[in-house]
Design goal:
369 residues, alpha+beta, 5-stranded antiparallel beta sheet, 3-stranded antiparallel beta sheet, globular, Transl_elong_EFTs/EF1B, Elongation factor Ts, mitochondrial
Length: 369
């Protein structure tokens, strides 16, 4: 539209509206706005095509979001990545707040183990994480799987800082403080060669919620201790995951053995501990020993103990009860071995799933009223 047409329009409209004007008080603001708009268009940053393609390939964000990141960062690729990270966390936090009330009864159990030998001795620790989402579809997403294993890596590396022994009695496995863990820096995926740490565990969860669009809840975390007990036993930790790969699945277990002597057969002990973890996953014991068991009055005692006490269960690979197998294994090693503790997590246990609504039945019931 030309300036003359604007001026002519004003000549017609302002008398009808009862307004007065001068060329200075009318035309100057219009000219300023036009020149400002033209200046902005001339100075606007256009996203670099090659950087745009690279950014989308690396981050999987939409075209619009990738363009916005490059424009905001003036085509500085590293700054664009930082902007996307901050934007993802912010938008994820908003979405997490909206989805917080939705039931998350699916998910994954993630296991990470550390069995390493150095000049200071052998370290054998493990962490088990129960991370929930709303659907099995999302639990099979690679982003969700990586988040679960990164959280378990974080719990493992921080160890007693997030999972202290809160009781006076020594415990080989402790529940982690979810608050402490969520505020901790999210460590890289175990298989990752990158050492970069980006944000906290809570921010990682929020970012994943923003990308996947489902409520995600960190339900529980268990960490084994690397510190010997008062008996000075060497601790051996192993675990087992069922229903997935070696890091994530639907059921998982940690088992810690105590060994009286410093033995060279660490690999053999690891294998034995793993077999016991498989026993825990498959047979779902509730107690380690009879002394800890609470037997209901209306159930035969012996039957209950054989089903629910780990040491009383028949060993899945034969050879008698778990107690008998451990004792025989101790004789083979010529050193006392005992099970100190175990923990078992199963996805969705203890969560009441919402009842699916039959819409046809609901409509029919409404019509009958």
């Amino acid at each position: 539209m030309s300036m003359n047409r604007v001026w002519n329009g004003l000549n017609v409209l302002t008398p009808r509206l009862g307004l007065t004007y001068t060329s200075a008080n009318v035309m100057l603001p219009i000219q300023n706005r036009l020149f400002s708009h033209m200046s902005c268009n001339l100075d606007a940053v256009k996203p670099n095509i090659k950087l745009l393609a690279k950014l989308r390939q690396e981050t999987q964000v939409s075209m619009t979001k990738a363009k916005e990141a490059l424009v905001k960062s003036e085509n500085d690729y590293e700054k664009a990545l930082e902007w996307l990270q901050e934007d993802a966390i912010a938008s994820g936090a908003k979405k997490a707040e909206k989805l917080a009330g939705r039931t998350a009864s699916e998910g994954l159990v993630a296991l990470v183990l550390n069995n390493s030998t150095s000049e200071f001795g052998t370290t054998s620790t493990g962490a088990l994480v129960d991370l929930s989402c709303e659907t099995d579809f999302v639990s099979r997403n690679e982003l969700f799987q990586q988040l679960a294993t990164r959280i378990s890596s974080t719990a493992l590396l921080l160890g007693q800082d997030v999972a202290p022994n809160s009781s006076e009695v020594f415990k080989a496995i402790n529940e982690a403080s979810l608050e402490s863990l969520q505020n901790a820096p999210l460590m890289p995926h175990p298989s990752s060669t990158e050492a970069a740490i980006e944000g906290t565990v809570q921010e990682g969860i929020a970012e994943t919620i923003g990308k996947l669009g489902e409520n995600i809840v960190l339900r529980r975390v268990a960490v084994s201790t690397g510190v010997s007990n008062e008996s000075g036993e060497k601790l051996i930790t192993s675990g087992y995951i069922h229903g997935g790969d070696q890091n994530t699945g639907k059921i998982g277990a940690l088992v810690v053995l105590g060994v009286a002597e410093k033995l060279e057969q660490s690999e053999e002990l690891q294998k034995f501990a793993r077999q016991l973890a498989r026993q825990v996953v498959g047979f779902n014991p509730k107690y380690l020993s009879e002394s800890l068991a609470i037997v209901p009055e209306d159930v035969p005692r012996q039957e209950f103990l054989e089903q629910n006490v780990l040491l009383n269960q028949g060993f899945m690979m034969g050879g008698g009860s778990v107690q008998e197998v451990v004792e025989n294994y101790s004789k083979t090693l010529n050193s006392k071995v005992r099970i100190l503790d175990f923990v078992r997590y199963e996805v969705g246990e203890g969560i009441e799933k919402p009842v699916a609504v039959d819409f046809r039945e609901e409509v029919m019931n409404q019509l009958k009223k």
